[in-house]
Amino acid sequence: MRKHGRLLLIAISCIALLSFSMIPKQHPTQSGDNTLSAAEKKAGWKMLFDGKSTDGWRPYKNKPSDGWEVVNGEIHCKEQGVQHRADLITKEKYGDFELSLDWKVGKAANSGIIYLANEEHDASYESGPEYQLIDDNGYPDKLEDWQKSGSYYAMYPPARLVSKPAGEYNHTVIKVKGKHVEHWLNGVKVVDFESGTPEWFALKEKSKWKDIKDWGQAKEGYICLQDHGGGVWFRNIKIRKL
């Protein structure tokens, strides 16, 4: 009886193991994407992207645009099949704020986040400063330091180059409090300065913005995701007023 009992126990164990192996495996999900934690809500954070739609956004100057889509919880600026390109901007203006988001670029792609922007110019980057997003290692042309990821484009280069390779997500934080501006990239503060100072105006006079009188001087404006030919993805876009 003991022998038969052991054989029965082994048979039952084999059946149980086989049954377990036939249960479909549960793949891990990116829980928490495009959502706020209780602590973030308490701290005043607000989602600018719900992961499903572009509610809260519109094309710059309401231009025709078919370059943006929402896929797999990401805002994607398409590379091909686009007839009308336009930056995607928030419907609401922001002054003192902290903006947090994740982004990645495709091979050789170039884009940016424009902030404190207005619609008094042909392009958003002619009105407000740009946090540069680019494939630092794979871009076909030689890049100046002020053109690299994290820079205050055409003005302040990043203190360190800490962007990830094309196809990998980066984390960006932009802080604006009065005249104080900070750019963070992957946990590193790469730009830190005061706008409107003699140093700032001296840099502006040497830059491509020298003939645009009001460039970068607004106290509030729109947040813009730049359509520079596509190949950029965004997620977890959130903001809080300071």
Q: Keywords for this structure?
A:
3 helices, Jelly Rolls, single chain, 242 residues, 5-stranded antiparallel β-sheet, alpha+beta
Describe this structure as you would to a colleague.
By secondary structure, the chain is of the alpha+beta class. The protein has a single domain (35-241), classed as Jelly Rolls (Sandwich), CATH 2.60.120.560. The protein has helices spanning 2-21, 38-42, 198-205, and strands spanning 46-47, 57-59, 68-71, 74-77, 88-90, 97-105, 110-117, 130-134, 170-177, 180-185, 188-194, 222-225, 232-241. The strands form 2 sheets. Strands 1, 3, 4, 6, 9, 10, 11 and 13 form an 8-stranded antiparallel beta sheet that branches. The chain has a 5-stranded antiparallel beta sheet with strand order 2-5-12-7-8, with no helix packed on it. A hairpin with a 2-residue loop joins strand 9 (170-177) and strand 10 (180-185). The longest helix is centred in the N-terminal third of the chain and has 20 residues, at 2-21. The relative contact order is 0.21.
